[in-house]
Amino acid sequence: MTETISGCPGMKGIILAGGGGTRLRPLTGTLSKQLLPVYNKPMIYYPLSVLMLGGINEILIISTPDHILEQFSGCWRRVRLGLDITYAESPSPRGIAQALTIGSDHIGNSPVALILGDNIFHGPGFSSVLQGSIRHLDGCVLFGYPVSDPGRYGVGEIDRDGLLLSLEEKPVRPRSNLAVTGLYLYDNDVVDIAKNIRPSARGELEITDVNKVYLEQRRARLIELGHGFAWLDMGTHDSLLQASQYVQLLEQRQGVRIACVEEIALRMGFINADELYLLGCELGNSGYGSYLMEVASHAGAA
């Protein structure tokens, strides 16, 4: 039987899948960016898989009104993953932190994990790091990735224990090379914090301003995603192609599926082996469906 990893009940998840995907036009002329294919799966499978690996099964997807009912609900209609997926509209993009105000009812009195809908996280031991961060959450946890051009990103500086010392958005003289990625863990205080930050000059609710409140309270940590880890942002045609090539290379070399949400649902105990086998059958003669049935059989499907 497949070993079930203990989840982290109580934390809610939010995937911010808003925006018009203007940098990916004409691909996004009729299709949401988060439903574009990244090798053999829709883009949104990748952030969804991260939340699932954290043991989170109550997930809100925030997108634009013309994409929600038409596309996202249909995407999951055939995928029974043991998840409670709901949807909310973002009429116009007003910054990442807007997701926390739109999703305040979904969050309720719980902590929350917020992830951007065009990010890929992949690396050894990531699920253990993520689950440990959730279990010991006190304030906020960010994830940093070393980059060669930190001036293009929000940049975090940490002490040797991972406590966040400074946070700057696109600094001229960066204090570190750690770019803040699109995955954020917050305790429930974030709901009030997000509601009380002032919009920027562009009228946006900046996630950096939310994080700085935790920084000032000395309750912000940043975990460095080190060697052997990949963080990919799929916001341009080139980065979308590079992400597809990365997934293709690893899957073909290692014989496993990256961000296979059905397999992760089994691993996390959201569904059982028989349910996984049926999901594989529904995908017909595709290689993806055959993979699911093989995993289910090894896990004891009848």
UniProtKB/TrEMBL annotation:
Q: Taxonomically, which superkingdom? A: Bacteria
Q: Which Pfam families match?
A: NTP_transferase (PF00483)
Identify the residues that the record assigns to the Nucleotidyl transferase domain, covering every copy: 12-247
Query: Where would you find the membrane-spanning parts of this chain?
Result: none
Single GO molecular function: glucose-1-phosphate thymidylyltransferase activity
- What is the top EC class of this enzyme, as a single word? transferase
Instruction: State its role.
Output: Catalyzes the formation of dTDP-glucose, from dTTP and glucose 1-phosphate, as well as its pyrophosphorolysis.
List the protein's name. Glucose-1-phosphate thymidylyltransferase
Origin species: Streptomyces mycarofaciens
Higher taxonomy: Bacteria, Bacillati, Actinomycetota, Actinomycetes, Kitasatosporales
